TrEMBL record:
InterPro entries: RecG_C_sf, WH-like_DNA-bd_sf, WH_DNA-bd_sf. Gene3D superfamilies: 3.30.565.60, Winged helix-like DNA-binding domain superfamily/Winged helix DNA-binding domain. SUPFAM superfamilies: Winged helix' DNA-binding domain. It comes from Thermospira aquatica. This is Winged helix-turn-helix transcriptional regulator. It holds the Pfam family HATPase_c_4.
């Protein structure tokens, strides 16, 4: 049975400020909720080029991974207030029902992590969707600074809030990129393109390319197989993928 309050409202509000430009009402299990939040952000957030050492790192995925896990792990599920992630022109605004342990803005200097749903946190850590308790705040402070040259705001109240500021021209550039590379931006088409380029590609390699979790990639592949667009030839280790169009 699904709790009535188990809902995450994903909203884009940049042009139509009275209503919304795009919206997704997510009411499913925790893992699929995580993947749908990540996929929605991929449609609506830019991902500027960034290297850590010689490795390309998706700043968008780093930031949204922490937001998604925070919204799903630390929610007060008995509270009627639904979680919201709102993508605006110059910020991401998140709000989540909460059991506050103090009230006011959180800073790294006085931040003490507290496990609000330890069982969910442990499962997310075991499947690779979250790290150690308290790492989310540190990661957001690190990657938001790189992403937007600004700092996130965390507000601990009965409704926990996260504000991720960024420059409006980042979104404008992303809109232009989406217009010219519309098909490449979609997760499913990224997977198909990667498999066409390398039929022996592994799930782990697709995870890196798409920015999804392993479960998210497997879910999309299963969907493509059910639609008759993808077929596995041979064994998991020695076989290859065949795209059927």
């Amino acid at each position: 049975m699904m709790l009535e309050t188990f809902k995450t409202d994903l909203i884009v509000r940049r042009v139509n400020l009275d209503r919304y430009d795009d919206r997704e009402d997510v009411r499913t299990n925790l893992i699929e909720s995580f993947d749908r939040i990540m996929a929605f952000s991929e449609k609506h957030l830019p991902d500027p080029f960034y290297l850590e050492g010689s490795q390309r790192v998706s700043l968008r995925s780093k930031i949204m991974r922490e937001i998604a896990s925070n919204v799903l792990i630390h929610r007060e599920y008995m509270h009627a207030h639904p979680a919201k992630i709102i993508f605006e022109k110059n910020r991401i605004f998140c709000e989540n029902a909460n059991r506050p342990h103090f009230r006011g803005n959180i800073s790294l200097k006085d931040f003490t992590p507290f496990p609000k749903n330890p069982t969910i946190a442990r499962i997310f850590k075991e499947i690779g969707l979250a790290d150690e308790l308290g790492s989310g705040v540190r990661n957001l402070l690190k990657y938001v600074k790189i992403y937007s040259d600004d700092e996130p705001v965390f507000i601990e109240e009965d409704i926990f809030k996260i504000i991720i500021p960024f420059k409006e021209d980042l979104v404008n550039q992303h809109s232009e990129d989406k217009s010219s590379h519309k098909t490449v931006e979609k997760t499913v088409e990224k997977i198909i393109y990667a498999i066409k380029e390398n039929p022996t590609i592994t799930i782990n390699e697709l995870v890196k390319i798409t920015g999804l979790s392993r479960r998210g990639v497997e879910w999309n592949i299963e969907k493509l197989k059910q639609q008759g667009k993808l077929k596995r030839i041979g064994s998991d280790k020695g076989g290859y993928w065949e795209v059927i169009l």
